[in-house]
Design a protein that fits this description.
Blueprint (H helix, E strand, L loop, with lengths): L5 E6 L2 E6 L10 H16 L5 E6 L4 E3 L4 H4 L4 H20 L4 E5 L2 E3 L1 H8 L2 E5 L3 E3 L13 H9 L1 H10 L3 E2 H7 L4 E3 L1 H16 L3 H33 L3 H11 L14
Helix pairs in contact: 1-3, 3-9, 5-6
């Protein structure tokens, strides 16, 4: 597969995958998801790769979530196809028998934070920002956040993150257990490289079994919840309330969701 949105480099046992859309803060569109899926599968199938490092191009964002311009065109039939696309990427990340390390600078929000949840470990620079955006743009983070986030940060904090769509600093993300480490921007590359090296020094068959074992419990929760919730989300694409969030984002204004709570 020829890549437009993703960079792929394999060297020294490490596959480095970069979301390469810095001009839109590495927002992901359908092609991006498909290229990420292909790149992850490529790393999974390469016997010389022992660890995957995932990052975003530039210093503004790891991933700012789904490209709203794409979401503005969704109706239920298109949404169902999109749900299958999401499922393919998360499945290859979860079932890959090699650790995936997220390297985060800048924004890691919305679908970007859900990609972060599918990484096995995450190291962030001090300027990183984390959060969910679904209800702010008329959507719901059913692709991981509603299933896995509470395991990382606790039930109460997960509800706060999803319901309020607040942004959290790297230090706050570390304190709540969302990420593993915070370092200066200058030290980020070296820190992640050292983490990858530490993993490569360990038994690959042990790492393989450990990752799949660690995933076993949350896999049951994720897969059992994803399919019905994916259909529910797909079914609201294009309706008036969904489009209020999308259009408000595009028009750079505050959405008026309160009108949907007024008496009919």
């Amino acid at each position: 597969m020829a890549y437009e949105d993703v960079l792929y480099e394999a060297q020294g046992g490490i596959a480095r995958i970069t979301i390469n859309r810095a001009e839109v803060r590495n927002a992901v569109r359908p092609r991006t998801y498909e290229e990420l899926t292909d790149a992850m599968a490529r790393a999974a199938d390469d016997p010389e790769i022992g660890v995957v490092m995932l990052s975003g191009a530039g210093d503004k964002a790891f991933c700012s979530g789904g490209d709203i311009r794409d979401q503005s065109k969704r109706v239920p039939a298109v949404g169902r196809k999109h749900m299958r696309r999401l499922f393919n990427l998360s499945t290859v990340m979860r079932m890959m028998d090699k650790p995936i390390i997220g390297k985060v600078r800048g924004f890691c929000v919305g679908g970007g934070n859900e990609i972060n949840l599918f990484c096995d470990m995450t190291v962030a620079s001090e300027d990183a920002k984390f959060g969910q955006t679904g209800p702010r743009v008329g959507s719901i983070p059913i692709w991981g956040a509603c299933q896995l986030l509470a395991r990382y940060v606790g039930e109460r904090k997960a509800r706060e993150m999803v319901f309020t769509c607040r942004l959290y600093t790297a230090q706050e993300a570390l304190a709540m257990g969302l990420i593993n480490q915070v370092v200066s921007a200058e030290d980020l590359d070296a820190t992640v490289d050292q983490l990858c090296s530490d993993i490569l020094d360990k038994s690959p068959q042990s790492i393989r079994i450990a990752k799949l074992s660690l995933n076993a419990g949350s896999d049951q929760e994720f897969y059992s919840a994803f399919f019905p919730n994916a259909e529910l989300l797909a079914s609201i694409y294009g309706n008036e309330e969904n489009m209020e969030g999308v259009n408000a984002f595009i028009e750079k204004r505050k959405p008026d969701f309160r009108r949907f709570r007024r008496p009919v």
